[in-house]
Amino acid sequence: QVRIVESGGGLVQPGGSLRLSCAASVSVGMFRGAVVGWYRQAPGKQRERVAIITRDGSTNYADSVKGRFTISRDNAKNTAYLQMESLNSEDTAVYSCNVNNLFGNYWGQGTQVTVSS
Q1: What is the mean pLDDT of residues 41-67?
Q2: If 0-12 CB within 10 Å is exposed, 13-18 middle and 19+ buried, where does residue 104 land?
Q3: What is the pLDDT of residues 4-24, one digit of tens each?
Q4: Which of 34, 41, 66, 116 stands 20 to 30 A from 90 (CA)?
Q5: How large a percentage of the chain has pLDDT more than 90?
Q6: Is the pLDDT confidence value at 30 over 90?
C-alpha cells in the first residue's frame, strides 16, 4: 500500500520561511518515474496546484508563488520538498503532496501552514 506523508508545516510569521517534505513509501523506481506536485487548499477556496516537478526535474509554479517557492526532489530518499520563502497570509492553507506515476495517483493527508503574526 502506497503511503504519502507530508511534514514541516506549522505557524510562521509573515516574511518567514518553511520547508515542507513529502515522503513516499514506494520503490525508488516508482518514485523516480513519478510526477510530484504540491497543492494547497485554503478555507473556503478550491484546491490549487502550487508546484510540480517531473521525473526529469522540470518544474512549474503557480504565478502566486513564483520566485518565492522552490520544489525539489531526492529520488534516493523517495522524498520531495517545497521550500517556501517570504510567506504571507495568502499562503495559509493545508498543503498536500501528490505522487503520480504509471501505477496510480497518490495523495497525502496534508500539513497545515499558517502565516500569522
Answers
A1: 97
A2: exposed
A3: 999 999 999 999 999 999 999
A4: 34
A5: 88
A6: no
Q: What is the DSSP string of 52-114?
A: EE-TT--EEE-TTTTTTEEEEEEGGGTEEEEEE-S--GGG-EEEEEEEEETTEEEE---EEEE
> Among candidates 107, 113, 62, 53, which has minimal Cα distance to 89?
113
C-alpha cell recorded at residue 34 = 513519478
Write out the three cell numbers for 85: 520563502
CA nearest neighbour of 57 among 80, 40, 38, 39: 80
3-class secondary-structure state, position 28: helix
**Which residue, 68, 97, 62, 75, is CA-closest to 30?**
75
* Count of Cβ atoms closer than 10 Å to residue 48 Cβ: 13
Q: What are the CA-CA distances from residue 88 to residues 14, 32, 62, 80 (Å)?
A: 5, 32, 15, 22
Residues in the chain: 117
